[in-house]
Amino acid sequence: MNRLPFLGLLFALLCLVACRQMNEAHLLHLAEKQVNMNVDSVYALLVQIERPSQLSDEERLLYGWLNAYVHYKRHNSMAEDSLILPASDYYVFRNDTAKNLFSYQLKAWYWYWLKEHERCIAAIDSGVALAKALQDTGRMADMLIDKAYWYVYVWKDYEKAIETFRTAIALDARAGSFFSMGIAMGLNKNDSASYYMERSIELAVEAEDTSKIVHYLRNYAQMQAYSSSYGAVCHRPGAVAYGRSGESGSVLERRAA
Length: 257
What we know:
By secondary structure, the chain is mainly α.
């Protein structure tokens, strides 16, 4: 009879642990639902998971994948995101096409942060091939933009960067791609740089994206200043109307959104 209070306490503790684990698994799956919607919500949910080591094997892989996703989206270092490698293999096994496809980008940036640049390019090339097979032009364009970034800032191969950006623009003509193409062309002293910079500004104006408008105008002004023709940007219609932005960055920026 004396054991009954002890057994009752043990049962209560086991229930508490089980509830906590269930709650953390619930938080994990809520975070998963926010992917491609709100990266800040994903992060806010993940930081509430206090004991990721107590998640199941499958949940730990998802936890690692989501952390890599947050770091990628926030342009943070991914050097500690080694779980993306087994997670990627797991989603291939599970035939989870969406996560598998995005995993190529996450793996590529993981290798980039480790300065394993050959592995980085190999991962992104595999991802581009899969995206092409799946006819996912948006994801294919995303991967090509990343690849072009590495050509610019790792290998300083501006010709390959320009060629890669051109392919990405043909798939998805977004403002950020035109902006990045303009930067690459400017670094390569290509006369067409101004066209791509101006087109990026036009697309940002059409989208009424004020932060991008200001960012692109500022960088275009810097580029023209470097080429001793700064005055041209000052006379663009609406160039003064958007004021100043708190966004940091310069011409040599990591990735254009």
